[in-house]
Amino acid sequence: MQYILKLIRWQNLLIVVLTMLLMRYAIVEPLISRIGVILLNGSGEEIPMVLHLPLTDFLILILATVCITAGGYVINDYFDIRTDLINRGEVIVGTRIPRRKAMLWHSILNIAGVAAGFYVSARAGSFWFGTIFLLVSGLLYFYSATYKRQFLIGNLLVSVLTALVPFLAIIFEWAALYRYYSVHAIELPDLKFMFYWAGGFSLFAFLTTLIREIIKDVEDFEGDAAYGRNTVPVMIGIPAAKIVAIGLIAVTIASLYLVWHFFLNDRITLIYISAAIVIPMLFVIYRLIKSSGKKEVHIASGTMKLIMLAGILYAVVVKAIISWNLL
Q: What is the model's pTM?
């Protein structure tokens, strides 16, 4: 069982679960609670909006996302046996877990994920939302089989799919809120703000994932070059790939401060992004500049993972600011 858990990257799956929980309970719930609505069959007084996607449906949505993500990790290791032997010296698929059993797990996880996705989509009143899960399942397969061997395409695809996770948590809640309040409220509240918040978290997830993917490709240069993979470092060289990663870090830092200046402009957020995100990013830049071997690059990659977690945890800061009126 321990090898199955390692194969599906259980730590990463916990981050997916945490992201979706925080989007619902630390972003959407406190924000909509500040919006008053007058119900048609109510007392005529304004009452705060509340979540309307049932908890069981939300948990099924998380299950669908986790299953498809886990299936993606399984098929990735299935196709990466030869390169992982060079880059890491060990593999799970083909040694601890037979290749046929790995494919069986991939099939089970994807079928369960797509089925759960269509079920919760139907429950939300938008059955076609289920095609998102079907599409992602197919893209993850082709990413492992083909796209990750092509210049930048694999990196961009993984980054887009990672950025989709915050949107999933919010779009299903938006659908439930729209369906309920468009019928039961005198006037439908403006819910566009939900997509602005989702966009902010998704953009951060996209940029940080893209940076980490390029750093990981630098770390895996030896195996990728040996088997003809057209990754960024293989195509343009390790020094140039590091410059690309550093440039993306600079863009991310600039974007954070611009968003803060134009949309947030509170001291707590400024302190948080500076201490928890920007300073660690400067450390990553330092590591990339000074790195002369895989160990230093691996540290930079691990630091980027912590930065991504810090970005997700900013949702807790948002909830605290709203709940305690800290603005």
A: 0.95
